[in-house]
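Propose amino acids for all 475 sites.
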């Protein structure tokens, strides 16, 4: 990456927005973070993009005084986007309508209409998921509720591309973001979905650019007002989990499934026949940076972990003896504690403990780790892609998690990436691609299986019980 200076990465998650600075060799130098605030509105909860834009530009200006930043790479989660007007500005950050919080419940009539028009699984690339997940459902809600404002809008932009547009004034679509359960883009056939064509939304969708393509320089009014460098270039950017996946592809890793862990457990593999995915489960057809299909399986594992472990979880790692005691007693956490079914249809909000309750905080933490490992293995079994299993993300903070996963997948080579900021590292790979520089080396560590008597039988009983409990939605 010689010659491009330092790189700033804008990482927009559901909970926080982070701004990172890395050197041209990929070393992380400094970061800032702010909550991705959600405000109450008359019609829907919405993200405070105006406040976020002020934080972003002032923080970027501060960091530019200490680092020779010359390239900016935006990445963001895949469950939303922004309907924008003609020009980016500070009044509402250029929004035509406020950005819907995807955990906001969608009105029943909008949801019913949407489900009729959303197309096939191949069109959507996922099941119809909870609340206001899916950009297409958000657009339908906006159009039905505020038709005048909707007609006057100019573009719909996925999250990373929204921030690229706000910084440069240049609008673009991008494959990995459009292919992340937006329900706007049919990934296998590379075309807009039926609801986009029926509603005429294709006029809102800018032309596609590659994630590593430059959108352009930061707009001059921002440069002048905040005393920014004249030569900072903003890349198109990408979907966050796919950016993380890209760093393994850039390192020429083959025949693998990657499981990234955090708020969501996301399993991705290119070694999957996407047309054979079980559509009744939480499976997805994502797009890689070139627009090619990636098989996916996901569940909201971070929320499950928190519900089981409780709020007062310490940093102390789980002990093998606590896991062994849970297995011996038959104490199990049944999914799902949150609003997402994940891999167990009709399980949302049915989460509960069977068997003797955990006796203390150590056992609650052990049960959360054990449950997370079981969810991970379920996702990888559903995909069945490749002979290597690679784990990364926040769950690796506890070594027992990876060791249980390895023990339950004895036929696979299980490895872990202890890069604690995989999404940022993936964004830096996009900067490498943009500059024509070789990617930084990727370090993978073999995972040793834990020896826990009865673990295999416990896992089988858990899976059978979890499958039995679903099937009928709530009255």
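Proposal:
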């Amino acid at each position: 990456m010689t010659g491009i200076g330092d790189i700033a990465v804008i990482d927009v998650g559901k909970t926080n927005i982070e701004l990172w600075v890395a050197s041209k060799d990929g070393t992380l130098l400094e970061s800032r973070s702010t909550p991705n605030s959600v405000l109450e509105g008359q019609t829907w909860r919405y993200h405070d993009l105006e406040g976020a834009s002020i934080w972003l530009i002032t923080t970027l200006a501060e960091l530019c005084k200490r680092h020779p930043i010359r390239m900016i790479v935006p990445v963001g989660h895949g469950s939303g986007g922004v309907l924008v007007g003609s020009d980016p500005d500070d009044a509402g950050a250029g929004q035509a309508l406020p950005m819907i919080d995807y955990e906001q419940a969608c009105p029943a009539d909008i949801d019913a209409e949407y489900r009729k028009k959303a197309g096939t699984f191949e069109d959507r690339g996922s099941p119809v998921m909870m609340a206001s997940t899916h950009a297409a459902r958000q657009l339908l809600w906006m159009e039905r509720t505020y038709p005048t404002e909707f007609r006057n809008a100019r573009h719909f932009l996925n999250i990373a591309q929204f921030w690229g547009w706000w910084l440069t004034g240049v609008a673009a679509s991008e494959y990995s973001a459009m292919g992340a359960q937006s329900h706007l883009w049919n990934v296998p056939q590379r075309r807009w979905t039926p609801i986009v064509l029926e509603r005429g939304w294709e006029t809102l969708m800018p032309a596609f650019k590659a994630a590593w393509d430059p959108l352009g320089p930061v707009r001059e009014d921002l440069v002048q007002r905040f005393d920014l460098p004249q030569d900072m270039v903003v890349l198109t950017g990408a979907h966050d989990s796919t950016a993380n996946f890209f760093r393994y592809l850039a390192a020429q890793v083959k025949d693998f499934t990657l499981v990234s862990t955090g708020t969501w457990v996301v399993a991705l593999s290119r070694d999957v026949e996407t047309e054979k995915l079980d559509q009744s489960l939480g499976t997805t057809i994502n797009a890689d940076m070139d627009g090619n299909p990636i098989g996916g399986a996901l569940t909201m594992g971070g929320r499950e972990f928190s519900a089981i472990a409780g709020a007062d979880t310490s940093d102390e790692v789980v002990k093998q003896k606590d896991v062994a005691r849970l297995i011996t007693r038959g104490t199990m956490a049944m999914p799902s504690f949150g609003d997402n079914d994940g891999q167990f249809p009709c399980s949302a909000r049915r989460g509960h403990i069977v068997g003797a309750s955990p006796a203390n905080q150590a056992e609650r933490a052990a049960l959360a780790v054990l449950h997370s490992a079981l969810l991970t293995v379920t996702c990888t079994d559903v995909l069945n892609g490749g002979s290597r299993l690679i784990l990364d993300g926040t769950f690796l903070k506890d070594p027992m998690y990876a060791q249980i996963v390895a023990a339950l997948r004895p036929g696979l080579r299980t490895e872990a990436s202890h890069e604690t900021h995989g999404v940022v590292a993936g964004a830096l790979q996009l900067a490498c691609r943009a500059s024509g520089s070789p990617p930084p080396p990727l370090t993978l560590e073999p995972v040793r299986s834990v020896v826990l008597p009865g673990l295999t039988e416990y896992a089988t009983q858990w899976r059978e019980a979890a499958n039995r409990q679903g099937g009928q939605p709530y009255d």
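The chain has a mean pLDDT of 92. Residues 6-236 form a domain with the Nucleotidyltransferase; domain 5 fold (CATH 3.30.420.40).
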